[in-house]
Amino acid sequence: MTQHNQGKPQESLNIVIVGHVDHGKSTLVGRLYADTGSLPEGKLEKVQAICRQQGKEFEYAFLFDAFLEEQEQGITIDTARTFFIWNERQYIIIDAPGHKEFLKNMISGAARAEAALLLIDAVEGVREQSKKHGYLLSLLGVTQFAVVVNKMDLVGYRQDVFDAIEKEYREFLGQFRAVPQQMIPVSAKMGDNIAARSRHMNWYQGPTVLDTLALFKKEQVRSEQPLRFPLQDVYKFDARRILAGRITAGRLKVGDHLVFSPSNKTAIVQSIEGFNVDPPTSEAQAGQSVGITLDEQIFVERGEIASHRDSVPLVSTAVRVNLFWMGRRPLEKGRKYTLRLATREVACEVSTIHRIIDTADLAQLQESQSVAKNQVAELTLRVKSPIAFDLSSSFEATGRFVLVDEYDISGGGIITELVHDEQEGLREEARQREYAWLTGDVRSEDRALQYGHRAAIVLFTGSAQTGKTFLARRVEALLVADSRHAYLLEGENLLQGLDADLSAADPSFASERVRRYGEVARLLIDTGLIVVSTSKTFGINYQRMAEMIRTLVQPAPVIAVHMSRAGEEPPPNTDLHFAGPQDFDAAARQIIEELKRRGVLIQPSGTRATIQYSI
Amino acid sequence: MKHLRQLEDQSVYILREAYKHFNHLAMLWSMGKDSTVLLWLARKAFFGHVPFPLLHVDTSYKIPAMIEYRDRIAREWRLNLVVGQNKEALAAGMNHTLGRDVCCTALKTTAMKNLVEEKGYTGIILGVRADEDSTRAKERYFSPRDKHGDWDFRDQPPELWDQFKTTFPPGTHIRIHPLLDWTEINIWEYIKHENIPFMDLYLDRGDGTRYRSLGCAPCTSPIQSTAKTVDEIIVELRKSNVAERAGRAQDAGRGMEMLRKKGYM
User: Fold this and answer.
1) Would you call A53 an interface residue with chain B, using a CB distance cutoff of 8 Å?
2) What are phi and psi of B209, to 5 degrees?
3) ipTM of this complex prediction, to 2 decimal places
4) A196 beta partners
5) Rounded CA gap, A304 and A398, in Å?
6) How far is residue A477's CA from residue A261's CA, in Å, rounded to a whole number?
7) What is this structure's pTM?
8) In chain B, which residues have their Cβ closer than 8 Å to the Cβ of A276?
9) How far is B151 from chain A, CA to nearest CA, in Å?
10) Which residues of chain A have pLDDT under 50?
């Protein structure tokens, strides 16, 4: 609304006001503004006049409940942002609705807060939404909060009433280790302990609400953490190829070696770009939206997380999470959702609903097939392809996510555990290998320019007798005829040579064969080849094998082609699917088109290439 | 100036999200201080470039100096400027004496809706701020509008952390508000810090008055002020308790809630 006429603010802090409906949140905000002289001239008088005219008693809440409907029903429908300045700090006060119908609005308000005031009505005591909001604050990562016990005037300013509420609520919060910074007895209506100390409650010696706001600290520690830089976009507006994004933790300097996860690509920061920044900066830290250039034009995409090598994010295809659901329809196992984590978007589904948490008493309800609106649950989520992330206990921004159902953000949550998948060992192998990978003076870009294509692997999967090998040979031949450098990597050839020391009786025989196959493919890819491969030699376990190869050849582009008999579902991550009797020439041409579309074939053969790496 | 850097970082992040997710994106530019700061932030976000068109809804009643300023900046900053106007309503003689709500709706809201429909924009970036009026205080950074351009404020999408509503059914569009957390003083502090060119209508040019908010000439009045520099404006605002849009006629009564429900910016 407006500023208070105090000194120049040095910083600003977002505060959310939450609590059960009718416990007096909007009244508290109204009173805070009135008592600090922060209301615009005439505002108080104008609202009082409207009240007289409509024959109802003036309430401070009317100052902020802007919508006609809000004033008519006497409740806040949506979160409002208001501003005031006190003691050199600007506060953005977010007044969140307390009615359970509007929980998603409360959550939107709380998600952007750095601290919170949670209100409890002294007459009604701890209610359903008092508990739910307390729990959600903790889930949303708002650890800095004070509990305000309001309407003390209606209980005769009695200490025993306050003490009982304090005891009950602290016990509740203790169950999830949340600790309020203060518990403050107030009357927002009468102005007790809001800006001025109450004369009715000498038994309370602690700070007023206004004092408490000043005691809230601005979060600084994020820049002391290891670096997390989720890539937002890649720009090529002029000669510079700029990687843009917001640093969510740590610091980044010119000259730093960066690792991108999950692709494992590496490069050195060449510059930090800016507009109207003089002199240019050489260092940036958490919270800043920046743009950097790299020493090498590596192909990296939005959604990857850059870090330093000594502290990389986790990578998996499954995570255990705490989630709250706000969707129009319930969250269900097996349905497809989009998971958004920092800047990454990936298809996902719920594989297990471990339990629903009743936020009123934190009881755990077992065995459910779905999560209803406004419920909190513990789940395991599986994503279609590996994601880089952190546990929310160690990193805030890369440890939380939202779920999108169709067009709508319908759930949000925090990651509590990495769920081990069977690719974990291979993923770590690929990661360590990529970090330590040595090359000559020829860069992969130089090879791509020379060959007219980037390196990649075309991976054919499918059950026996579906024509995989036949099609793979056709693709190899077509590529070579078009002057591309392609090679069919035949698994049987490895069996007789590289794998000759393996015994088929050994339980690890199959997985060791795939591992070796994958590492050979990785070497061939580094030579700049388009490797054509089939899962034929691995028999019926082709799906698992294909996943392992995919993990091992990371960060090379994979074009997955699945062949099946009519009516079969292709495995996840399939790029092209051919079912039933095939026109193999048409299929081969389609694969060539896909290679063009993916930017692997970057020029008509015989002409000089210009590589467009930007995405 | 740490708080200005924080505001800038958040706005830049929002602009980049908008550019990433919307193929048909445009920014509304009224040449006022807010949307000019917004334009500057776009140049920050995209390293000196503005990779989408700037829309100006010309009611034909703007102060002439505003149009001169618009054309000069558009030339100097190489902007892709698109001007929209409700010619039909103007030909039929629409003006503020027929009623301010009617006039605003016809010449601004309808003109913008027509422009959005004609060009097929799915994302419109606007410079509205939460501290301007109490309905704007309830806005989201990414705020959907239905097929008629209307705002369903009772059922706004959740906005969690830095995850915004970037997917939407065909026929609807999203309003994007990167300046929501900025106050009037922040705008001036930033103009000073970045040395952004602005119209001198905001300053006292000798007659003891200046404009605090710019709109159409008939419906915007200057305020009593002797502020001749940005610094003096900031000092004046720190002392003032008068609402910024007090000089804007359409804000009277419940005007803004009604206008904004119907798609006003």
Assistant:
1) no
2) -135, 160
3) 0.89
4) A192
5) 11
6) 34
7) 0.80
8) 43-44, 194
9) 13
10) 1-6, 612-615
